[in-house]
Amino acid sequence: xxxxxxxxxxxxxxxxxxxxxxxxxxxxxxxxxxxxxxxxxxxxxxxxxxxxxxxxxxxxxxxxxxxxxxxxxxxxxxxxxxxxxxxxxxxxxxxxxxxxxxxxxxxxxxxxxxxxxxxxxxxxxxxxxxxxxxxxxxxxxxxxxxxxxxxxxxxxxxxxxxxxxxxxxxxxxxxxxxxxxxxxxxxxxxxxxxxxxxxxxxxxxxxxxxxxxxxxxxxxxxxxxxxxxxxxxxxxxxxxxxxxxxxxxxxxxxxxxxxxxxxxxxxxxxxxxxxxxxxxxxxxxxxxxxxxxxxxxxxxxxxxxxxxxxxxxxxxxxxxxxxxxxxxxxxxxxxxxxxxxxxxxxxxxxxxxxxxxxxxxxxxxxxxxxxxxxxxxxxxxxxxxxxxxxxxxxxxxxxxxxxxxxxxxxxxxxxxxxxxxxxxxxxxxxxxxxxx
Length: 436
Known about the structure:
By secondary structure, the protein is mainly α. Helix content is 80%, strand content 0%.
C-alpha cells in the first residue's frame, strides 16, 4: 500500500490556522456583544461559559484525536465554527431571553470547536514532518505559521473594524445603498462565517499521518467507537498524570496559564478599553492590524530567545513584560494608553511559541495531541477562573462615570498578578533544581 502523501499538510495547517484564528470580529468583539444588548459583566460571564465548555471537552477531544484521528476532530471543529457564526447572525438586538440563549449557544459551540482544534492541529502538522530533523522543521513551520497568522490578523483587523462602523462605508456607497448600524454590526460575523467555510474545506483535504491516529487508533478502528472512547479515557488519565507529575511539564503548563489567563482576559476586552481611552471605533481594526504587523517579528525574537535561554527564563521574561503592560493600563491615558495594550497583545505570541516549543520537545508522538489538550484545559481553567473573578470585580465597582469599574478592576489585578508570579517562579525554580 503506497505511503500517504503528507507533504501538503504543513501548508494546509498554516492556511487553517490563519483562517480559524484571525477572525474579522476580533477588533470589535466586546462591543459586538454590548451593542446587541448585553452588559459588560454579562459578556465576561459569556467568556466564562466559553472557557468552561473548553475545560470540559479539551482533554477528551485531545485523547480522541490521538485514538480516532486528528483530521476527524479538525473537520468537526470547522463545522462547529460554521454553526457558532450562524447563532450570532440570527441573534436579535435587545432580544431578551432569545438573545441571551443564542449568545450562550454561540459560546458553547465556540468552546467545543476550540476544544476539538486544541492539540489536534499542531499534532497532525508535527507528525506530518519528516522524522529526520523534525524538531528544527517544527520550529521553522511554527515561526512561518505565526508570521502568516500575523498577516491574517492585519487583514482581518482592518476589515472588521472598518465594516463594523457604517459611517466610513456609507461615504463610499451610493445614496440608495446606505447601511444601517444594525446591518453593519453583522458584517464582521458574516465575514467570519466565510472563513469558517474555508476552514471546513481545508480540513476535509488534510491527510492523517499513518501512525498519528494513535498506536491505539488502529485497534480502535477494528474494535469500534466504544473501545476508542475507553482508550481515549485511559490515555487522558495517563497523560494528565504524566504532565502534572513531570517537573518540567508542570512548570511550563502552570507558569504559562498564569500569564495567559490575565493577558487573554484583557485581549477579550480590548474594544471596551479602546473606548475608555477615547479611540474612535473605526480605528480599532487598524490597531489590530498594527498589532498583527508587530506579531510578524515576534516568532523570530521568540525563537532567538528560546535558543539562548532556558524555558523558565523565557517564561519569566513573558511574565515581566506582562506586569509592565498591566501596570501601564491602569492610568488609561487617552490615546497613549494604546502602547501598553499593544505590548500585552504581542506577549501572547511570545508565550505561545515558548510553551508550544517546550511541550513538543517533551511529548512523544503517541500522546502529543493529548498533552497539548491537557495544556489547553489548564490554560482555559485559569482563564475561566480569572474571568469569573474579573466579572465579580466589575460588578462590585460602580460604573459612574462610565469606565470607572473597568479602571478599578485593572488596578486591583496588578498586585494580585505580581504576588502570584513571584511565588510561582520561586517555587518553579526550586522544583526544577530538585528534579535535575
